[in-house]
Amino acid sequence: MHKINVISLVLIVVFAVSMWSCADTSSKLTENGIIPKPLAVTDAKGTFTIDKETKIVISGNPAEISPIISVFQALLRPATGYELQVAADMSANSILFELVDGSADSAGEYDISVAENGIKVAASSNEGLFYAVQTLRQLLPASIEGSQVATVALEIPAGTIKDKPEYAYRGFMLDVARHFFSVEDVKHVIDLLAMYKINFLHLHLSDDQGWRIEIKSWPLLTAVGGKTEVGGGEGGFYTQEQYNELVAYARDRYITVVPEIDMPGHTNAALAAYGDLNPGIIVPTEGAIASEGIELGVKGVPTPLYSGIEVGFSTLDTDNDVTYQFVDDVIRELAAMTPGPYIHIGGDESHVTELEDYVPFVEKAQAIVTKYGKKSIGWDEIAHAKLEPGTVAQYWAKAENAVMAINHGNQVLVSPATKTYLDMQYDSTTHLGLHWAAYIELDDAYNWDPTALDPSIKREDILGVESPLWSETITNKEEIEYMVFPRFAAIAEVAWTRQELRSWESFVTRVKAHMERWEVMGLNYYQSPTLADETLQP
Ligand code: ACM
Questions:
Q1: Where does 29-163 sit in CATH, by number?
Q2: DSSP conformational letter for 165
Q3: Which residue blocks in 283-398 are alpha helix, DSSP H?
Q4: Domain 169-504 of CATH type 3.40.950.10
Q5: Does the Cβ of 348 fall within 6 Å of ligand 1?
Q6: Mind listing the pLDDT tens digit for each residue in 214-254?
């Protein structure tokens, strides 16, 4: 009898403990909603609550760390009204940001340790501290994303997070040529990229339909070539001052801008501005904006502006010295506005440039980029040319081109159109986008491995992963949001998180938590049926 009572008591205790731990599951650090998924997370007992008395403590050069502290303060301010103060010493309610020594390959790495009496954040780079702030943000309730002061309990479960990016280059491309997007819209995109630890923004600045960056030595590029866009709208361009503002805005969020001038194809806007660049290849009339006195396809004569969505019909005159003066001037001015290492020279779909003309053109364009102290990135077709050391081939269409680049000793940036092209429709009912490469649902965007695309493309050959948004059908910020979210969160995780740590089931849970955030942020995201509960049953 006595024995039975003891057993019952033990069972009751076990039951009570298990109930308590069930009730506690929502407050475990390991059950976080962080995207991209961190390298390692552990749980500890208790929670830390940020309140208006929480102090920030800095260890390291304050001039370096302060901008990141400002980012953290600004993230908390709108929804809480808190103005967290910086204090000299740790207390029972503080958050420490510490810059520690690290190796060159620790860029972006950070550690977070949450205890009941405070949080410690350590990184060997400012970039790492910035990523830690983005992670802390995602540990806070979705309501933190609101723009009005509300009652928000800022509890974070205790434990540790160790994190480090898998790929050095985690990119997003915005096509501002097919449709032009304002400086404000691009800043909005940059804010969203920063949340997902993206570190490169590739701007596709020129194409057949528009030239979008002021080049002072060739003013008609924007005065004429910037005047329209797909559908015949008014187009636009960035002045150098506006462009510099964008580069600085991105830099403050640890994002490097990669400017692209697409050459020698995709150049009708330049040919419309300067007839000297035109070798006299016929351009399609469908979509051509007829202008009086302008003839089609006459060497040395400006082409009509173009507002259709055909590709592959234009080329620079590769056999004319003026063309190389043009390329030199454009790259020189662009390099002067580019603090980052890369200039993108395009090189895709030059269907009307003979290969014997294309190859020397790409080699000369690369040499000009090198002369101005930058490295070239080009779409995978550039692998037909001799690539300079450090040139990167962006694999979008053909694995054989990517492999050719690797065989030259160059790295590839992975953007397979069938997985990463965010202008592809989700399915046949999507009212925006195209589907020439594929329909790409959320699970298609998530369930692939950059190192499994081709047996000859190994981990060490891959510089990183980039998701492009082409804008033939995308005309405004809401449409950008719709095509980008939620797929972009999937690709951000492909780029940041080691393959063996990723799983669709885990991503589904976390992306649902992000949908709550996107609601609060007012984002026009796509409701993917792959996240509906019934489709998640085994
Ligand atoms: C491309 O999609 N033409 C690079």
A1: 3.30.379.10
A2: -
A3: 321-336, 355-371
A4: no
A5: yes
A6: 999 999 999 999 999 999 999 999 999 999 999 999 999 99
